[in-house]
Amino acid sequence: MNRCVDTGSARAGDYNMLAAADAGGMPAGSRAGEVVRRITVLVADDQPVVRKGAAAAIRRRPDLELVAEAADGAEALEAVRTLRPDVLLLDPDLPRLDGFGLIHAIAVESLPTLVLLFAEAADGPVVQRAVAAGAAGYVTKSDSLWSICDAIRRIASGERFLSKDAQVALLDQLRHGGQWLQPALSEREIEILRLTAQGISSARVGELLHISQSTVKNHQRRIYEKLGVSNAAAATYEAMRRGILR
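Above: the chain's sequence. Below: its structure in token form.
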């Protein structure tokens, strides 16, 4: 049986390449006549290139079956209710219903789907919160698409999975007594903060970065939480004080 091989960390070009290849109808790699117990997967991410690239990587695995894609949390929850996928590959910063709200809804409704968080970065408090909320695993968008496929397979088999970066982040968090630290901002969060500091509206930031306004606001909320502030002006000042923005 063909297996995806870990070829290093994912880049934007990897998502674009796989999405384009998938649109062109390239084969998934399973052998004719081979019977495989396929793990059903739902991908939920509001960035089309990331979502399509991840979906294409899943389609190319003979042991995985993509059943649907979702661009927001409400759509993802409805798909989980209807399709009952084995695994949900979930961006925690979805609009309409964020990842943690979705994990809570799945638990409350006793749905059988396992959640693999698919985050921009491995932040200790977020990894800790994910584990506490009941996520079966945590990977980042800088992990290779092939290793993410393997993580899906592993949690479907009953394991719990944290990427190497997530393990390090969680250990650092626990070394500090499990306190909510003030972790470094991700590249996307710094990008959003830099635009926000220029007085650009959340709607315009979304247009510039090709993401929804709701996703921008979710990122801004996370930025404020990490910096221990409550508004954009205070976030800009604190980020400059720490040397995050110059």
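The chain has two domains: 12-28+35-175, 187-241.
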